[in-house]
UniProtKB/TrEMBL annotation, chain A:
Involved in DNA repair and RecF pathway recombination. Residues 9-82 form the DNA replication/recombination mediator RecO N-terminal domain. Belongs to the RecO family. It comes from Tepidiforma flava. The keyword DNA damage applies. SUPFAM superfamilies: ArfGap/RecO-like zinc finger (SSF57863), Nucleic acid-binding proteins (SSF50249). Keywords: DNA damage, DNA recombination, DNA repair. This is DNA repair protein RecO.
From TrEMBL, chain B:
A zinc finger (C4-type) spans 61-76. Residues 84-179 form the Toprim domain. The keyword Isomerase does not apply. This is Recombination protein RecR. Coiled coil: none annotated. The gene is recR. It comes from the Bacteria. InterPro entries: DNA_Rcmb_RecR, Rcmb_RecR, Rcmb_RecR_Znf, TOPRIM_dom, TOPRIM_RecR. May play a role in DNA repair. It seems to be involved in an RecBC-independent recombinational process of DNA repair. It may act with RecF and RecO. Keywords: DNA damage, DNA recombination, DNA repair, Metal-binding, Zinc, Zinc-finger.
Length: 253, 202
């Protein structure tokens, strides 16, 4: 019959979150490139002999076969593509991965293709798995996540009038979406960003995650960048991501 | 007639109370409520008393944080149990599971939860400080981490290992690998990798 959606879909996806449900089931939040965020139930996975169990762990990238349900999809089959074993054996990297997954869940849309967001998360998890600095990967992910979700930060020119910025300390207003020049700077909350921090943000936007993670920067610059991105995320999410406290307590010097 | 008018108010309250219990959906709550009001007054009274008494008499053990009627609990006050070994579990039911295996002769520590940053559950929500305090007495030789072999369980293991490191205590964890009766063909990468790492000489 034309127009009728298929009853089974095959999709690659990353498990963003897993919550227990009922006696032995688990509710999964998956991020897929073609279908966006999908809520699915994995039946019986909390039993020790469950075959699906390890394939639906959070942070794992797997290939899924999902049966379309009325509300929730049901995981019929799953096979791990990348378990990210090294990342899961390192507390900071794991905390960063969980943080990235939470942000991806919050800024993703259900049942709408989001290939860019998916690629970004795949790259970030792969970098963490390869041993990149968890804090650097998290910053890179935050900045690019804002961009792919339609909240691109303007740090190369004034966000209001588009004027070029002099090489000097500049005013960053998260609610405005970037840096405001001296002429446009109104009475909005914000913070001053050093030239170095501005350069780091610009570099992060055009580099790959591996290039950015290899960048060495002084701790005070890292702190500036972290605070600016946290402001920007707070402006978009209207709330603090739940997993950020744990991640920050582990990585703060 | 709307459902709320057909259900007398006391039954409605009972249904709501039962519905708040884990694993009880609205239909089960209705069935249980109507079952309870149809039983003899003595039976209903006994159920109510059991609930009240359990809640009143059960408290946390000041040593292992397990639920107990006497403080310290039966395991902690048993001189035959080895005080040098502590088995760390997520919840009181896990103590029963380990006891059922029948080979562990040490003591326990119940965390009452597991690190789950995504749900906002951090180390400050678990009884980790109490564990560190027990270990810092110097009496403990080994801490066995018996959390679930899930991502959150692993995170908890790594975190506890880190906070216990300065105390020089041996931290071990339960072996991970293929469960009895499993099918190799269906095993995931993580399980197989851990099973290979933990292989044993025959």
């Amino acid at each position: 019959m034309p127009g009728r959606p298929p009853r089974m879909i095959a999709a690659e996806g990353i498990v963003l979150r897993r919550r227990p449900s009922g006696e032995a089931d688990a509710l999964l939040v998956l991020l897929t490139p073609g279908e966006g965020r999908i809520d699915a139930v994995a039946r019986g996975v909390r039993k020790p002999q469950a075959k699906l169990r390890g394939h639906v762990e959070p942070v794992t990238r797997s290939r899924f076969l999902l049966a379309r349900g009325r509300g929730l999809d049901v995981v019929a089959q799953a096979e791990t593509l990348d378990a990210h074993l090294r990342l899961k054996a390192d507390l900071e990297a794991l905390a960063a991965a969980i943080y990235c997954c939470e942000l991806a869940e919050r800024l993703s849309t259900a049942h709408a293709p989001q290939p860019e967001l998916y690629e970004l998360l795949v790259d970030a998890l792969a970098a963490l798995d390869a041993g990149a600095s968890p804090a650097a990967v998290a910053r890179y992910f935050e900045l690019h996540l804002l961009a792919v979700s339609g909240y691109e930060l303007q740090v190369a020119a004034c966000v209001s009038c588009g004027a070029d910025l002099p090489e000097a300390e500049a005013f960053f207003a998260a609610a405005a979406g970037g840096i405001l020049c001296a002429g446009c700077r109104a009475e909005v909350p914000g913070r001053l960003l050093s030239v170095r921090a501005q350069k780091v943000l610009r570099f992060a936007r055009r580099s790959s995650v591996a290039e950015f993670a290899a960048l060495r920067m002084p701790p005070e610059t890292a702190a500036e960048v972290r605070a600016a991105l946290a402001d920007a995320l707070r402006a978009v999410l209207d709330a603090e991501p739940r997993s950020s406290t744990f991640f920050e307590t582990l990585t703060r010097p | 007639m709307p459902e709320s008018l057909a259900t007398p108010e006391p039954i409605q309250r009972l249904i709501e109370a039962l519905h708040r219990l884990p694993g009880i959906g609205p239909k089960s709550a209705q069935r249980l409520a109507y079952h309870i009001v149809r039983t003899s007054p003595q039976e209903a009274e006994a159920l109510a008393r059991a609930v009240t008494e359990a809640r009143e008499r059960i408290r946390y053990c000041s040593v292992c944080v397990n639920l107990t009627e006497r403080d310290p609990c039966a395991v902690c006050s048993d001189p035959r149990r080895d005080a040098g070994t502590i088995c760390v579990v997520e919840q009181p039911l896990d103590v029963l599971a380990v006891e059922r295996a029948g080979i562990y002769r040490g003591r326990y520590h119940v965390l009452h939860g597991i690190l789950n940053p995504m749900e906002g559950i951090g180390p400050e929500h678990l009884h980790i400080d109490a564990l560190v305090a027990r270990v810092s007495t110097g009496e403990v030789r080994e801490v066995i981490m018996a959390t679930n072999p899930s991502l959150e369980g692993e995170a908890t293991v790594m975190y506890v290992q880190r906070v216990l490191a300065p105390h020089g205590v041996r931290v071990t964890r339960l072996a991970r690998g293929l469960p009895s009766g499993a099918d190799l063909e269906y095993a995931d990468t993580m399980t197989l990798a851990r099973a290979l790492e933990g292989r044993q000489e025959l």
